[in-house]
Amino acid sequence: MALVPRGAVVAGALAVLLQAGCSGRATRPTVTDVDLSVAASPVAGSPSLPVVADARVSNAGTTRVWHCEGCGCGNGIGLTVLGPDGVEVWLRDPNAALPLCPDAVMPLDPGRDLGARLVFTGTLYANGHPTFPSPTYPAPPGTYTVIARFTYAISVPGEWVPLERRTTFAWAP
Predict the structure, then answer these.
(1) What are 24-66's pLDDT values in tens digits?
(2) Residue 6's beta-bridge partner residues?
(3) pTM above 0.85, yes or no
(4) Which of 96, 100, 82 is nearest to 129 (CA)?
């Protein structure tokens, strides 16, 4: 019987263990990377030159995330405008009837994105007025702030992660 050197046995066992741990494909770590951006154009608007605000959510990670979608939450991106005094202004009639459909939790897969847009024409609606349609008034001059919000979860059920971005534009009627 031939004796095998102890070092050769250890090296052979190590080679078997390493080979068993290797797969045919490279594995990547799971990364959650959800980006939210918002931009307004032009940076100075007027009734003859409305301002368009675009928000975009991108899943730049390697994991699926979940977001709200439906009549109450749209595609999950919320856009709010604050007037020069810092108080929310209404671009749509707050007394208007909304469609009735359920909200659901939907996936946003890696490499996919969502978008939302609002157009600021300078026509604002009175909030808290008892009748429909609510009265309108012209937007006063000043700097307005657009707030984009998006909330997502890594799993369902799971903890919701809020994102918020802001941009401003000037309004001169």
Answers:
(1) 566 667 889 999 999 999 999 999 999 999 999 999 999 999 9
(2) none
(3) no
(4) 96
CB under 8 Å to 91, separation ≥6 — which residues? 81, 118, 119, 120, 121, 123, 124, 125
Q: Is 149 exposed, middle or buried (0-12, 13-18, 19+ CB in 10 A)?
A: middle
Burial 56-71 (b: 16+ CB within 10 A, else e): bbbbebeeebbbbbee
Q: CA 122, 125, 126, 128 torsion: positive or negative? A: negative
Whether 170 contacts 142, CB under 8 Å: yes
Cβ atoms within 10 Å of 146's Cβ, excluding its own: 22
Helices and strands of the chain, counted as H and E runs: 1, 12
Strand partners, 80: 147
Interatomic CA distance for residues 142 and 106, integer angstroms: 38
Find residue 55's DSSP bridge partners: 38, 116
Structure tokens belonging to residue 151 = 């909330």
Angle formed at CA 49 by CA 45 and CA 51, multiple of 5 degrees: 55
Phi, psi dihedral angles at 16 (to 5 degrees): -65, -45
